[in-house]
Amino acid sequence: MAMLTDEMLLESYQMAKELQLDMEFIALLLAEIHKRNLDMNLAIVH
Prior knowledge:
This protein has two helices and no strands. The protein is mainly alpha-helical. This is Sporulation histidine kinase inhibitor Sda.
């Protein structure tokens, strides 16, 4: 996760939710987002 930029992390989270990927994977992404104190509203919606 450390290799992902904040923007890449937010985009990955958004895409994982859209594709309905495994909930454990989405939870890992979300935990990292919270760890970095990122604003979820900055997630880019395609």
